[in-house]
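Tokens for chain A. Residues wanted.
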């Protein structure tokens, strides 16, 4: 018994010696010992999750993380986690940090986290607030603390979105007395652009949260890839100074491409995962944000929908969301095909099912080209059109609870622009129907 007590004392002394006041990975009982939860309703509280409930799939470290369920909690409802009381009065550079994730790309009513501090354990004052969306992976959040802070409260506000907010690796203690690099975004996903064009993401920021100047020792040479960066490794960052830089993608092939940009420094390394796809010059692409492509049409119960939680990207998609619906199609105009073409889109169904790709020379008689098996998660569907050596119509047929987005397609034939025209705007306020091909 004496050995156990002595060991506990030594562990506590070691933790204090290194300035660690709270280190919480949310692995055991939830909420952790001496932590409290606070919400207007029990269902609005933070919970423990392995990262699989509308999350990243895995946690940052260990087996579990703390999760706020934006997917089920109503818009603007909130819940708080309150830390145990602590004493940081003897620390030189006290700080709080944690890893967070929310990869929802919605731009409206985004979820958020707000950090409150208390000096008496009862009255809390806001210290910082930030939106939690488009994290592109786990991100580290840092906050300098005054030495008289004795408790912290983390308040999550829901956006009723498609992704939940996760927190892991929570820390209160001594900040870095040396240099310490913090990167605001660990992923650059360029989605898909036309081959030969350039897409740029210019919102990457590196901050030095340490007390010693941050200097850089190397940057990945991207010259052999389709990616490039404006980062200048000669920059020197003092305490709390930042540098912002851009990453660009200029594809020369249509293959999916990936790379890693690693920026090494005396305060740690920053790694940014790079990815992008391209479609051939002359092809069309739509994410349905501006409606249907010209001369494409919807029939039956297939419709243009608006919901950021149901689309693959953005806020619009094509599909049939109600079980009361029967069937529907998305049909192309006459496409210019020469035996070297393809069709691509992302699709899912609520429960496992299929969609069917049909083809026709006259938009009257249809032949089945391919049956696509789908799951409850969006997957990239590639339809090989190499068997079609003459101009043809393409039709995507589906039954209820089908969703599709991000369509890549061959160019329209100059011989015949389209068939049925049921033209939509994204507000679905303008419709025009013809029952025969345009001749």
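Reply:
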């Amino acid at each position: 018994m004496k050995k156990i007590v002595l060991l506990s004392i030594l562990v506590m002394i070691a933790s204090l010696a290194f300035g660690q006041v709270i280190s919480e990975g949310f692995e055991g009982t939830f909420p952790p010992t001496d932590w409290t939860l606070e919400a207007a309703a029990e269902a609005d509280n933070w919970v423990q999750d392995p990262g699989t409930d509308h999350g990243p799939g895995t946690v940052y470290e260990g087996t579990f993380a703390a999760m706020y369920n934006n997917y089920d909690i109503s818009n603007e409802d909130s819940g708080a986690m309150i830390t145990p009381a602590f004493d940081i009065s003897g620390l030189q550079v006290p700080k709080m940090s944690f890893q967070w994730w929310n990869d929802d790309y919605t731009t409206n009513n985004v979820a958020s986290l707000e950090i409150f501090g208390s000096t008496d354990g009862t009255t809390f004052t806001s210290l910082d607030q930030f939106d939690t969306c488009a994290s592109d992976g786990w991100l580290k959040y840092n906050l300098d603390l005054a030495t008289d802070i004795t408790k912290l409260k983390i308040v999550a506000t829901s956006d009723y979105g498609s992704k939940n907010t996760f927190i892991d690796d929570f820390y209160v203690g001594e900040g870095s007395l040396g240099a310490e690099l913090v990167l605001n975004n660990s992923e650059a996903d360029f989605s898909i652009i036309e081959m030969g064009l350039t897409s740029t993401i210019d919102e990457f920021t590196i901050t030095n949260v340490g007390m010693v100047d941050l200097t850089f020792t190397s940057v990945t040479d991207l010259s052999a890839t389709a990616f490039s960066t404006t980062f200048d490794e000669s920059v020197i960052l003092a305490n709390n100074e930042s540098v912002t830089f851009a990453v660009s993608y200029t594809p020369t092939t249509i293959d999916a491409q990936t790379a890693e940009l690693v920026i090494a420094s005396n305060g740690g390394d920053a790694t940014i995962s790079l990815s992008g796809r391209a479609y051939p010059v002359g092809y069309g692409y739509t994410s349905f944000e501006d409606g249907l492509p010209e001369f494409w049409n919807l029939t039956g119960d297939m419709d243009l929908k608006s919901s950021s939680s149901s689309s693959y990207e953005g806020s619009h998609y094509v599909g049939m969301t109600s079980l009361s619906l029967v069937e529907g199609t998305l049909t192309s105009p006459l496409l210019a095909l020469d035996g070297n073409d393809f069709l691509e889109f992302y699709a899912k169904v609520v429960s496992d099912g299929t969609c069917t790709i049909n083809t026709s020379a006259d938009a009257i008689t249809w032949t089945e080209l391919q049956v696509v098996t789908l799951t409850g998660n969006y997957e990239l569907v590639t339809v090989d059109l190499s068997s079609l050596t003459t101009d043809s119509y393409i039709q995507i047929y589906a039954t209820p609870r089908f969703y599709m987005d991000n369509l890549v397609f061959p160019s329209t034939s100059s011989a015949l622009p389209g068939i049925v025209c049921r033209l939509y705007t994204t507000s679905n306020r303008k419709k025009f129907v013809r029952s025969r091909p345009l001749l």
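The chain has a mean pLDDT of 88. Residues 2-17 form the longest helix (16 residues).
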